[in-house]
Amino acid sequence: MKKKSTIAAILLTISCLSFAQTKYADSLRGILPTITKPLARFMVLDNLLLEKVNREGNNVDSAFTFQLLKIAQDLNNDSLLAISYNWLGTYFFGNKGDNATGLEYYFKGIPFAESARDNRRISSLYIDIALCYFDLNNHEEGIKNIRKGSQHLPLKSSPMYDYMLTQYQSGLAQYFL
What we know:
Elements: H1 2-31, H2 38-56, H3 62-75, H4 78-95, H5 99-115, H6 119-135, H7 139-151, H8 161-176
Helix pairs in contact: 1-2, 2-3, 3-4, 4-5, 4-6, 5-6, 6-7, 6-8, 7-8
């Protein structure tokens, strides 16, 4: 009986969270046309993509990803370029099934993330690279990159630590499966 009530509580929590995420994404979509400052627009687009991925998996909006890259290039900002290349890699790998182009964008992002000293992004890029290699059945490159991702997890005090740790653990589980 306890197991059934635990499962019911988890399902209720997930449904409430997904409703809340939808409201959040809808509010971001609503304000997007009014935002003209490039950095603010970048942040809203980035959050919209993250919400979409959290709700729908790797269903990344290509228009948003290319807008991110354009803003990052215009601002010549390493951190924003790393984020943009990460999203573009996810778009090509996740949406298009184009591992080669996905890997190209992921690898382009690494020097920018390193220059910005952004461990969260470095970790994300290496973990995503690993997932591409796993998809290509190149498990040696996959495990090498998943381990690099784990070496760059954000600090435990970071709000993104648990998220990135889960990404790492999920990729590691995929390797062992």
